[in-house]
């Protein structure tokens, strides 16, 4: 009887979760239930499973609405029916094909019209839904004749009165109006509740034909689904046999290119993997990925294949990854094994500049009917809940800001705020809108609309209406097509080196970018700013503590820096054992045999599996449950508890003492959270090395590429500093040399116009285009004649020094500009005005302070270029100690003067703490630690230079200054405003610092880790 049920996947309309709907129906003994969310099939698969568990027959469909108008309810007779509905809505969402108001072209769908939208002609599958409140219409002749086409329509939108109020709030949010101003047609009727079947049938007792029609509809409709069936595109060439032939040919071709002809280990590995891939019918999946990579190579793009795919030698031979699994002892079973029923998961990164080109290729190659992004449900978040709910109750913006920024406990206790809190709490976890998954693409064998309607978000690529977890459940494994700035930096650096030096660097050649002597020296010293994944202060400190001077240690470092490993204390123990290999024993032989490379410490996800298998005697399937728990995929506490119980019982059978088993499982458990598989770490390490190789041998071009790709961990100023330290001559933008991005000519680096604040991009585009078409600008007057620019934009260019080629000082240029342009607007100027000879004015000689340029730069770029920040200090003092000498002062007090680069908030049991990163006057970096007692008396006061007093602590080759006192040092007043007291220190506020916050739990101290360093009996 329930043909029209909504859940909260009817966005900003429904109030029930799928569980609440099904559970409520089960309690009432309802035997058949229809899910018809508004223009959505997001929840049909979850609905199907819950109904089956509850013994309810599931029927799925969709309520079709346009704006607030209900057109009809579409119920699928079977799976092909839901496909028809999806196709119609997809055409509307993606191609703007209007929704038919009546008589949609369905074959396997029953259409139920509201009385407000009855078609002239009825097909066999068309019905009219009559609500209980509308039964009085049937006394009239024109309605009575339609009874043979009528069914019961009892929409379900809420269960309680509170739910109904929440529904109206959601509708007010959707319509951006006050709840008091909602119009009747914008929200549901107050009787859209789940009535007991007996009560509902009683209302229609005088109309047995309507009841009979309803029962017939329910009998005709149904939904069945087989979850275990793979639904990705099956074949690349057209058949399993030809797929295997092509894959085999490509694999052996790659084997010949990458390995010695006599390498039997590699050959046997290829044979073994091909056999497993064939048995699992995954040849097509490998070939599709290979095809995407081949297209990328043909376009000259760089990619990084990472994740567990790097465990496969076939991936390596096909060029999908650049990691040799034999070299790093990566076992294929971590990626693919005969117990696995779903396709493997390839993660491939491209430059953020190239990714859309790759996506367009995939959509064009495999067809828009078969390709879509995974969707994701964006839930109402804390701040947005209070802001949105408060707005519909009419609260002013000031109060909304307070509600959104404070915890609920701090809110005022008036009646309106209480209402906001009450209904806001009910909205937690409600989906607010659908969005696009960051990287997951689905390529299906059958049309993808067989499984979901598609939507077209602003990005421009269609998405399914369900998320990646549902996709995986129904047999659609995603291809992760990712983007990152690190690859863009590498790619752009290679291009800049070719343009600036005439050198072609084959950065894909691993011999260049792995275990190279000078690069290893930079690694061990932590000189890695700008390099992918290894530039943060924490990572640079780790590299120095490890004296990391080879690729394999870098692979380990890439994983132990992850929160899961560091949080467990394994990172500290790894550092100790790496530096003191003769001061510990493996506490059990299995740890020496399986984890000898990492000193008996679990560093990678695979290590957990190894210990579960070889120490605990568990089956590989149980090991995989642990692995998935480590990575956050499919995490199930109940499944994890079963594995734990099995682990302890299995260890007991193997004769392990209980205290030993408890210690081993403690290590496993502490590892949970964030960690990498070894192949993932190896992939990251290769990209880090590629970045480092370019930084070491072509530092200027590399840093320019980093600047142009938006940097990384730090702000632009830091990368500009690195370029300067590498020998670059840093210059502010010039109208004859600069473009939107930063340019390099020899060792001269001209900052791009993109860094100049308040300068319109359109002005830059016109400037660059005019210069390319008609040559360099000869003078200020020539520039004004050729580029349509207003006085405000021209002044910015003068202040940043873009006309210094003219040889005139800025003061004189500004006077000329104002005399030439006056109050004219660009669009009002006549060309004839500039065709006349320019008048020569006799201008007074205007003196400029030597530091005026620096303050212009601070105002427009955020940092000085023509001098260092130290030169702007009032004091001439530069510190007693330089960063390069800190290792000599272990446990001694030092006084230093330094410029603040970044600080990171770190929680500790003693309270808030910060780690600071600084440069001294020589441009070298060093790090500080600021504990809560010090911060209370000597807090950070924004960007700038500080006088620091502290004690040096050297921790495994890495010095940190623990600050006892610090004071921000004053800069000279701005000489441009010598007579304006208010503005003399205004520009100083633009000097920035990088601040990162974390709310993670404090890392354990060494005495809290408790990892045994002696064999346990």
Automatic annotation (TrEMBL):
It is an enzyme of class 2 (transferase). Residues 1-68 form the Polymerase/histidinol phosphatase N-terminal domain. One of its GO terms (molecular function) is DNA-directed DNA polymerase activity. It catalyses: DNA(n) + a 2'-deoxyribonucleoside 5'-triphosphate = DNA(n+1) + diphosphate. CDD domains: PHP_PolIIIA. Its EC number is 2.7.7.7. The keyword Lyase does not apply. Keywords: DNA replication, DNA-directed DNA polymerase, Nucleotidyltransferase, Transferase. The keyword Cytoplasm does not apply. Coiled coil: none annotated. Gene3D superfamilies: 1.10.150.870, Metal-dependent hydrolases (3.20.20.140). InterPro entries: DNA_pol3_alpha_NTPase_dom (IPR011708), DNA_pol3_finger (IPR040982), DnaE2/DnaE/PolC (IPR004805), DNAPol_HHH (IPR029460), PHP_dom (IPR004013), Pol/His_phosphatase_N (IPR003141), Pol/histidinol_Pase-like (IPR016195). It holds the Pfam family DNA_pol3_finger. SUPFAM superfamilies: PHP domain-like. This is DNA-directed DNA polymerase. The gene is dnaE.
């Amino acid at each position: 009887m329930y043909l029209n049920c909504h859940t909260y996947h009817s966005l900003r309309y429904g109030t029930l979760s799928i569980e609440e709907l099904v559970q409520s129906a089960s309690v009432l003994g309802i035997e058949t239930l229809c899910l018809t969310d508004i223009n959505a099939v997001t929840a049909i698969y979850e609905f199907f499973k819950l109904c089956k568990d509850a013994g309810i027959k599931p029927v799925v469909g969709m309520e079709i609405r346009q704006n607030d108008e209900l057109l009809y309810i579409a119920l699928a007779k079977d799976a092909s029916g839901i496909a028809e509905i999806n196709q119609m809505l997809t055409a509307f969402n993606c191609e703007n094909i209007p929704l038919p108001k009546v008589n949609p072209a369905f074959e396997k769908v029953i259409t139920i019209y509201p009385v407000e939208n009855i078609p002239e002609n009825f097909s066999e599958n068309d019905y009219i839904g009559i609500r209980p409140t509308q039964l009085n219409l049937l006394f009239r002749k024109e309605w009575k004749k339609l009874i043979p086409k009528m069914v019961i329509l009892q929409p379900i939108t809420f269960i309680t009165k509170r739910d109904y109020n929440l529904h109206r709030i959601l509708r007010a949010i959707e319509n951006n109006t006050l709840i008091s101003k909602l119009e009747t047609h914008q929200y549901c009727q107050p009787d859209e509740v789940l009535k007991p079947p007996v009560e509902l049938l009683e209302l229609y007792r005088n109309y047995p034909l309507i009841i009979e029609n309803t029962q017939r509809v329910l009998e005709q409709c149904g939904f069945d689904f087989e979850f275990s069936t793979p639904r990705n595109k099956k074949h690349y060439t057209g058949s399993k046999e030809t797929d295997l032939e092509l894959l085999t040919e490509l694999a052996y071709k790659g084997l010949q290119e990458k390995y010695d002809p006599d390498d039997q280990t590699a050959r046997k590995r290829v044979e073994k993997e091909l056999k497993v891939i064939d048995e699992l019918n995954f040849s097509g999946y490998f070939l599709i990925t290979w095809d995407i990579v081949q297209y990328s190579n043909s376009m000259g793009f760089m990619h990084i294949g990472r994740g567990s795919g790097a465990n496969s030698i076939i991936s390596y031979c096909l060029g999908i990854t650049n990691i040799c699994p034999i070299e790093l002892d990566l076992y294929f079973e971590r990626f693919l094994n005969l117990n696995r029923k779903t396709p493997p998961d390839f993660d491939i990164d491209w430059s953020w500049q190239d990714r859309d080109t790759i996506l367009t290729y995939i959509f064009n190659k495999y067809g828009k009917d078969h390709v879509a992004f995974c969707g994701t449900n964006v839930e109402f978040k804390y701040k947005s809940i209070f802001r949105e709910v408060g707005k519909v109750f009419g609260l002013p913006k000031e109060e909304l800001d307070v509600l959104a920024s404070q915890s609920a406990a701090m809110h005022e206790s008036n009646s309106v705020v209480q209402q906001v809190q009450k209904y806001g709490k009910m909205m937690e976890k409600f989906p607010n809108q659908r969005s696009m998954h960051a990287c997951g693409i689905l390529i299906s064998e059958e049309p993808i609309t067989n499984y979901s309607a598609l939507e077209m978000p602003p990005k421009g690529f269609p998405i399914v209406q369900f998320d990646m977890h549902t996709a995986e459940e129904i047999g659609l494994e995603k291809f992760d097509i990712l983007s990152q700035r690190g690859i863009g930096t590498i790619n752009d650096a290679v291009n800049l080196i070719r343009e600036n030096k005439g050198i072609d660097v084959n950065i894909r050649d691993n011999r260049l970018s792995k275990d190279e002597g000078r690069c290893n020296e930079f690694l061990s010293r932590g000189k890695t700013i700008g390099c992918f994944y290894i530039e943060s202060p924490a990572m640079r400190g780790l590299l120095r503590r490890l004296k990391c001077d080879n690729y394999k240690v870098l692979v380990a470092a890439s994983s132990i820096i992850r929160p899961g490993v560091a949080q467990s204390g394994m990172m500290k123990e790894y550092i100790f054992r790496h530096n003191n290999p003769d001061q510990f024993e493996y506490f059990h032989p299995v740890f020496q045999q399986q984890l000898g490379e990492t000193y008996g410490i679990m560093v990678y996800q695979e290590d957990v599996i190894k210990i579960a298998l070889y120490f605990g005697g568990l089956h590989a399937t149980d090991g995989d449950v642990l692995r998935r728990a480590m990575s956050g995929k499919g995490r199930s506490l109940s499944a994890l508890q079963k594995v734990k119980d099995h682990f302890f019982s299995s260890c007991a059978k193997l004769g392990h003492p209980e205290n030993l088993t408890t210690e081993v499982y403690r290590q496993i458990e502490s590892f949970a959270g964030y960690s990498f598989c070894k192949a993932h770490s190896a992939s990251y390490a290769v990209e880090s090395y590629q970045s480092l190789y370019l930084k070491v041998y072509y530092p200027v071009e590399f840093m320019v590429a980093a600047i142009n790709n938006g940097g990384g961990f730090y702000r632009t100023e830091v990368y500009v500093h690195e370029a300067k330290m590498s020998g670059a001559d840093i210059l502010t933008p010039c109208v004859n040399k600069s473009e939107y991005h930063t340019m390099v000519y020899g060792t001269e680096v001209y900052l791009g116009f993109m860094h100049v604040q308040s300068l319109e991009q359109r002005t830059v585009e016109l400037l660059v285009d005019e210069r390319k078409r008609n040559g360099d600008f000869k003078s200020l007057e020539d520039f004004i004649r050729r580029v349509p620019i207003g006085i405000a934009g021209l002044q910015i260019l003068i202040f940043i020094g873009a006309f210094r080629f003219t040889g005139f000082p800025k003061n004189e240029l500004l006077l000329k500009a104002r005399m030439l342009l006056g109050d004219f607007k660009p669009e009002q100027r006549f060309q004839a005005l500039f065709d006349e000879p320019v008048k020569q004015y006799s201008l007074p000689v205007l003196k400029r302070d030597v530091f005026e340029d620096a303050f212009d730069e601070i105002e427009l770029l955020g940092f000085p270029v023509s001098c260092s920040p130290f030169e702007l200090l009032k004091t001439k003092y530069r510190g007693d100690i330089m960063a390069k000498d800190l290792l000599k002062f272990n446990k001694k007090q030092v006084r230093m003067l330094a410029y603040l680069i970044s600080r990171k908030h770190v929680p500790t049991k003693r309270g808030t703490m910060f780690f600071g990163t600084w440069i001294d006057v020589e441009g070298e970096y060093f790090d500080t630690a600021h504990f809560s007692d010090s911060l209370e008396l000597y807090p950070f006061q924004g960007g700038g230079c500080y006088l620091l007093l502290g004690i040096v602590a050297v921790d495994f080759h890495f010095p940190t200054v623990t600050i006892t006192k610090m004071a921000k040092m004053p800069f000279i007043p701005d000489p441009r405003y010598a007579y304006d007291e208010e503005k003399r220190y205004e520009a100083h506020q633009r000097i920035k610092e990088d601040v990162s916050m974390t709310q993670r739990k404090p890392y354990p101290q060494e005495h809290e880790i408790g990892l045994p360093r002696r064999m346990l009996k």
